[in-house]
Design a protein that fits this description.
Elements lengths: L10 H11 L5 H15 L4 E6 L11 E3 L3 H9 L6 H6 L6 E2 H4 L2 H4 L3 H7 L6 E9 L2 E10 L8 H46 L3 H11 L4 H8 L3 H15 L4 H14 L2
Antiparallel strand pairs: 1-2, 1-5, 3-4, 4-5
Helix pairs in contact: 1-2, 1-8, 9-11, 10-11
InterPro entries: GAF-like_dom_sf, Sig_transdc_resp-reg_C-effctor, Tscrpt_reg_LuxR_C, WH-like_DNA-bd_sf
GO molecular function: DNA binding
Pfam families: GerE
Length: about 260
């Protein structure tokens, strides 16, 4: 990266950003809140955050600010093939910006620029890929309008600094998400087995699911839009079918079934 001598780094802002984004404990929410916080650190007109699986395929819907679904679909279906920046720096280390990579005199006349970027007021861009031990986890792209200043060296330094933290956080959330998915699948299989064994009705299955999630009778009633007395009636039927007398015994029965199926 260029000489940093005259670049003032506001370390307190970096520290606060890392602290705030480090508290995000859901992979599904991470990209949105990351970009929301990032806009205070590096102002942008538009942005997107893509997450990738182990095969480097996009996971779910990317989070976008000021880029609508129609624009995203057009890019995914066609314009990504014309994206010169993607061709140059995708899955590469380091923060980059468009004005360092391309000659705007030529590039501003390209189909991708005139038909896609310019029409959506995406003039300047900067971005960075997030890696954890050589594995691509995500990519962040920021955009500014032509009327705004280009991304600065300071902006690129900030991207470099926070990407290192983001790599650790996203990788941790990937691991937690995998554990959660495996647990949910296992619980689903156990629920299917128990439902068949005890011949539970669909409503009884719903009540049992919420009970195993630790919900009180009041919360189960609210979730299923039924009265507390109806919840108690369903629980009584479940206890009778499972030959238990309480929540504790029922939970123990399910837990025992999980162990036996491990």
């Amino acid at each position: 990266m260029k000489n940093l001598e005259n670049t003032l780094i506001e370390w307190e802002k970096i520290f606060n950003f890392i602290c705030e984004t480090g508290q995000i404990n859901s992979l599904n929410n991470y990209s949105y809140y990351f970009l929301k916080k990032l806009n205070n650190l590096i102002p942008f007109f538009a942005a997107n955050f893509f997450l990738f699986d182990e095969q480097e395929k996009i996971m779910g819907e990317p989070i976008c600010f000021n880029i609508n679904q129609k624009q995203l679909t057009l890019y995914s279906n066609y314009y990504y093939k014309l994206d010169n920046i993607r061709q140059l720096v995708f899955n590469q280390p380091g923060a980059t910006k468009s004005t360092d990579l391309l000659d705007y005199t030529t590039w501003s006349k390209s189909e991708y620029f005139t038909d896609f970027l310019a029409k959506n007021n995406l003039y300047y861009s900067a971005g960075i890929d997030i890696h954890y031990q050589n594995r691509l986890l995500g990519t962040i792209s920021l955009f500014r309008e032509r009327s705004e200043p280009d991304f600065s060296l300071k902006d690129l330094i900030y991207l470099e600094l926070i990407a290192k933290h983001a790599a650790n956080q996203v990788y941790k959330l990937f691991l937690l998400n995998n554990i959660k998915q495996k647990k949910e699948l296992k619980t689903k299989l156990i629920m299917k087995k128990i439902s068949q064994e005890f011949e539970l009705t669909e409503r009884e299955k719903e009540v049992l699911n919420l009970l195993l999630a630790g919900q009180s009778n009041q919360k189960i009633a609210k979730e299923l839009f039924i009265s507390i007395n109806t919840v108690k009636k369903h629980l009584s039927n479940i206890y009778q079918k499972a030959k238990v007398k309480s929540r504790t015994e029922l939970t123990a029965l399910v837990f025992k079934s999980k162990i036996n199926n491990s």
